Amino acid sequence: MEWNGLIADFEFYLKLEKSQSENTIEAYGRDLHRFVEFLSILNKPVHPNDIHLDDFIQYFVWLAELGIGERSQARMISSIKSFYKYLLIDGIVQDNPSELLETPKLPRTFPEVLSIEEIDKIESAIDLSKPEGQRNKAIIETLYSCGLRVSELIGLRISNLHFNDGYVKVLGKGNKERLVPISNKAIKEINLYITGYRVHLSIPKQFSDILFLNHYGKQLTRVMIFLIVKSLSKAIGLTKSVSPHTFRHSFATHLVDGGADLRAVQEMLGHESIITTEIYTHINNQYLRDSIRQFHPRSIH
N or C, where is the chain less crowded by C-beta within 10 Å? Predict the structure, then answer.
């Protein structure tokens, strides 16, 4: 079987058996097709079983000469290694030459973090006289108070809001659900948005359970959330590079700075890794809620 067919089978495997997101699957496929492009340029062997470590080394030397940075190279190495692990499991190759590939050491980067004062200023900059004002305030507060990814925010469903219990159910990466504690402040802003704005919208049936909607009654996009955040940051003259994800970083940083247990923060963020996944699966929901109430700045509201 040729490379394209094997890559397609690998993508199918990632989707069905590994529950990877569409973005992740697309990135893996793109990286692997680039390697195939390199092989075709040099008239290299057409089957993965014929590839040796030297071929990979030559490929990454070529990428470096093209100006591909170390961070991108590290991701490509990860794609190739995952692909060959799959081929080995499936019996398509007998050896895995990618095992010996070394990931380049990357400089450690630290994401921007907003102070609680900066977050309050951003919320204060929202024009509540506009119809969408309260919606935007609820969005910012939910991003920060729950530490959600943008995809999780725009996918929030009304049926998954359990305000009486102090939780929201979130659909995270790989379609994995988790319960995230929500602050009283966020609950208040969401309720004001629902009763003052959302209730007046004409909502198509397919969006009836989606929490955050545009003025057409349709689900918001990732781009729209990005533009809202950028506009508000500009309005208060913030020089930091702020995106929706900045509120997630701030959520985690403020909890840790306040003394919250790292395991609880990890569980609330929905992060997983080979090494740490097991220890996070045994943290009970009451412990998570207590951590939020004790350490998150919004818990006093």
Answer: N
How deeply is 253 buried, as exposed, middle or buried, from its count of CB atoms within 10 A (0-12, 13-18, 19+)?
A: middle
Class of domain 3-100: mainly alpha
pLDDT at 1 over 60: no
User: β-strand 167-171 against 177-181: which pairing, if any?
Assistant: antiparallel
Alpha-carbon distance 293 to 260, whole Å?
10
What digits encode the pLDDT tens for the residues 233-254? 999 999 888 999 899 888 887 8
The pTM assigned to this predicted structure is 0.60
Q: What gap in Å lies between CA 57 and CA 241, rounded to an integer? A: 36
Q: Taking CA 250 as the corner, what is the angle to CA 247 and CA 254, rounded to the nearest 5 degrees? A: 145
CATH of domain 116-300: 1.10.443.10
What sign does the CA torsion over 187, 291, 167, 224 have? positive
Q: Scanning the structure block, which residue is given the tokens 């799959």?
A: 86
Q: Where are the domains of the chain?
A: 3-100, 116-300
DSSP state of 43: T
Active-site residue list: 149, 173, 245, 248, 271, 280
Task: Please tell me the predicted confidence (pLDDT) of residue 282.
Answer: 35
The helix (run of H) or strand (run of E) holding residue 181 is strand 177-181
